[in-house]
């Protein structure tokens, strides 16, 4: 081990970076990639006077983690290390902060905002940075923010004489990019190298030490047979068939099997088609069928009562928003079947066998006489909540001393809550984390004896990240799934893809330096060209219609409520309606409560359609700079009436018109708030 605390395998992979080369470090989860990056940053700052290091992360919670546990202990003093996140007022002075610091750790989005900003205090140039560290760099693809940053890097690289930072990427799995054959997987690895303008390195001489320091868990397939009878699921399908008969799907449209992701995609298509064809029956039935399909998926993974509770929550809201006979039919259909579903959900003979196997899997490792820890990975926030309730109500699990806690993303859990939960896990007050994918990457979680993946269909990168959490001696990695089901099949595919990733990297390493350089240059030229074309297409798409020619209709009652020209974009984040007449279109609901606070705005009340009994939620009011009270809405809650017909979009960036930037000064002048 070096005087800095690096193991031999870490020292091996950083050698080319110490010589100033751009590299991607590929090492497994828990091997200390961030520690290696701190070492490179320290040597870089010692070698270069007035060097500037920026560390990019893809998740908010990693900013503070890397700052407090790695970079400050490793570099400060003498170097000034700062952290900038969405919580920080400093993000609005990013350029000045960078010039006054040695190392800045921030989310990639904040850094990209600073790159494109026209404000002097906020703006930065890539030429001001000498080392750019990209954490979890396998996310550098498609339209991800990492790729937006690196496209700017490549664009400047094409300009002769451009000064650019050294690149240091970190990843536990480059992945295959959905490739199933070696040639395509090799191309994916080369594209990652091209995007980051780097070579990919891993350990060769110190593999034995790496395997000793980062042991791999024993993989166990805990497979169960399909439940013999599922009358609860059959009842849901019967209800769905009645809705099919009522809505009369288009003759040219073939519905796929219900209870699948493919069926959900069909319902999204039918909902959009209903809006386009002015067919509210088709639109609303598709929305309700999606919910029943979700209930089938919950029934397949969790308890029957969890699926029933999901439907009850949905129809509790729908009972207050009856617009016409379609709504009445759909709500009454659920009410007519509610008691039967409730009776079936209480019958233990038909309970999900996966839950019994999950119980056995947890008890195999987490026992009262043994100090052990586990992570149970599940797909959604709802499923983690249901599993938490199940653990707390399960007598066998409670007798075994299992103390669970939920760990989910920062949209529903504050950073303080995340840190507190992980600290309890580290101290033993919690010994089972029930987590979404937030715990797969990056979080500083103690070594686990057991990792369980439950109800998940993910790629090989997520699988590898999750299994890397089981790092204790003799740890186990378990897949609990139905025999022959989607999860079991996907797990076997992912195992093959992990092997394919290693073969692809090995093939890249076998290329001669000239072959590699030529291929990388070719891919970079293609990427720059594709980026320009994509930007051009985006401008065309967003400028297809004038904003004033597009009407927004409430997605539930399809009543026109606003025009595209009424909306403006605040701080590249909030899409607000600045037309004062818009207030006549909505009612005020409950106050929105957020754990975190923001420098320039605070949430107000929920807003909802006031057309008759519609009450569709649109978003909430926000108070901007303690003066402007602005309705902030999600475009997915509306249909768009355009000169080319009706349509729907899920994100504001996909609307077919240009949304202007919000001017606080102009707003104040227009509303007589300024002297």
Structure, explained:
The protein is α/β, with parallel strands linked by helices. It folds into four domains: 8-212, P-loop containing nucleotide triphosphate hydrolases (Rossmann fold); 215-226 and 352-494, P-loop containing nucleotide triphosphate hydrolases (Rossmann fold, 3-Layer(aba) Sandwich); 231-349, phosphoenolpyruvate carboxylase, domain 3; 547-670, RIG-I-like receptor, C-terminal regulatory domain (Metal Binding Protein, Guanine Nucleotide Exchange Factor, Chain A, Beta Complex). It contains 21 helices and 24 strands. The strands form five sheets. A seven-stranded parallel beta sheet has the order 3-4-2-5-6-1-7. Strands 8-13-12-9-11-10 form a six-stranded parallel beta sheet, with helices on both faces. Helix 18 (460-467) crosses helix 19 (486-509). The chain is globular and about 75 Å long. The protein starts with 7 loop residues before the first helix and ends in a 5-residue tail after the last helix. The mean pLDDT is 92.
Name of the CATH class of the largest domain: Alpha Beta
Structural class: alpha/beta
Poorly predicted tracts of residues: none
The shape is globular
β-strand number = 24
Spatial separation of the terminal alpha carbons: 67 Å
Strand order in the sheet with the most strands: 3-4-2-5-6-1-7
CATH architecture of the largest domain: 3-Layer(aba) Sandwich
Name the average pLDDT: 92
Number of helices: 21
Assigned CATH superfamily of the largest domain: P-loop containing nucleotide triphosphate hydrolases
The CATH topology of the largest domain is given as: Rossmann fold
Helical content (DSSP H or I, runs of 4+): 40-55%
Largest sheet: 7 strands, parallel
């Amino acid at each position: 081990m070096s005087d800095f605390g690096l193991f031999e395998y870490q020292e091996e992979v950083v050698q080319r970076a110490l010589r100033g080369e751009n590299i991607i470090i590929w090492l497994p989860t828990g091997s200390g990639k961030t520690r290696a990056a701190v070492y490179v940053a320290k040597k870089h700052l010692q070698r270069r006077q007035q060097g500037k290091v920026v560390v990019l992360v893809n998740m908010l919670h990693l900013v503070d983690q890397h700052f407090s546990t790695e970079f400050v202990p490793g570099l400060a003093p003498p170097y000034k290390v700062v952290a900038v996140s969405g919580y920080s007022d400093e993000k609005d002075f990013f350029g000045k902060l960078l010039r006054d610091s040695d190392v800045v750790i921030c989310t990639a989005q904040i850094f990209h905002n600073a790159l494109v900003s026209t404000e002097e205090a906020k703006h930065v140039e890539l030429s001001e940075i000498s080392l750019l560290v990209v954490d979890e760099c396998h996310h550098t693809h498609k339209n991800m923010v990492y790729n937006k940053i690196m496209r700017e890097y490549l664009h400047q690289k094409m300009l002769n004489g451009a000064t650019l930072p050294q690149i240091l990427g970190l990843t536990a799995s480059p992945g295959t990019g959905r490739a199933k054959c070696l040639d395509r997987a090799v191309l994916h690895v080369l594209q990652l190298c091209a995007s980051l303008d780097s070579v990919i390195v891993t350990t060769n001489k110190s593999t034995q030490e790496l395997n000793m320091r980062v042991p791999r868990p024993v993989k166990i397939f805990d497979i169960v047979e399909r439940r013999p009878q599922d009358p609860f699921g059959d009842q849901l399908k019967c209800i769905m068939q009645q809705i099919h008969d009522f809505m009369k799907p288009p003759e040219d449209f073939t519905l796929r099997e219900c209870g699948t992701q493919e069926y959900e995609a069909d319902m999204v298509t039918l909902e959009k088609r209903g809006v386009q064809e002015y067919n509210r029956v088709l639109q609303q039935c598709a929305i309700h069928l999606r919910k029943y399909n979700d209930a089938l998926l919950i029934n397949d993974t969790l308890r029957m009562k969890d699926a029933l509770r999901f439907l009850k929550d949905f129809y509790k809201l729908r009972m207050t928003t009856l617009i016409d006979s379609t709504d009445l039919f759909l709500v009454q259909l659920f009410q007519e079947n509610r008691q039967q579903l409730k009776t079936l959900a209480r019958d233990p003979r038909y309970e999900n066998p996966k839950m019994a196997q999950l119980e056995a899997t947890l008890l195999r490792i987490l026992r009262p006489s043994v100090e052990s820890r586990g992570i149970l990975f599940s797909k959604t926030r709802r499923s983690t909540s249901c599993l938490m309730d199940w653990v707390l109500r399960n007598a066998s699990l409670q007798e075994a001393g299992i103390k669970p806690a939920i760990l989910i993303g920062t949209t529903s859990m504050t950073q303080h809550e995340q840190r507190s939960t992980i600290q309890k896990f580290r101290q033993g007050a919690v010994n089972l984390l029930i987590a979404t994918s937030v715990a797969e990457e990056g979080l500083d979680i103690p070594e686990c004896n057991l990792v369980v993946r439950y109800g998940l269909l993910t790629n090989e990168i997520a699988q590898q990240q999750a299994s890397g959490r089981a790092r204790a001696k003799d740890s186990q990695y378990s897949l609990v799934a139905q025999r022959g089901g989607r999860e079991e099949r996907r797990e076997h595919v992912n195992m093959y893809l992990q092997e394919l990733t290693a073969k692809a990297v090995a093939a890249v390493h076998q290329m001669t330096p000239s072959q590699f350089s030529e291929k990388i240059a070719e891919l970079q030229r293609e990427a720059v060209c594709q980026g320009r074309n994509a930007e051009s297409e985006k401008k065309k798409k967003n400028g297809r219609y004038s904003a004033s020619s597009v009407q927004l209709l409430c997605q539930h009652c399809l009543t026109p409520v606003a025009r595209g020209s009424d909306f403006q974009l605040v701080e590249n984040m909030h899409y607000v309606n600045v037309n004062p007449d818009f207030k006549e279109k909505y009612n005020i609901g409950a106050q929105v409560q957020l754990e975190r606070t923001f420098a320039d705005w605070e949430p107000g009340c929920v807003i909802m359609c006031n057309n008759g009994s519609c009450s569709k939620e649109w978003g909430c009011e926000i108070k901007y700079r303690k003066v402007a009270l602005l309705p902030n809405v999600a475009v997915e809650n509306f249909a768009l009436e355009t000169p080319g017909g009706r349509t729907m979009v899920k994100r504001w960036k996909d609307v077919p018109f240009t949304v202007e930037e919000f001017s606080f000064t102009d707003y104040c002048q227009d509303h007589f708030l300024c002297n």
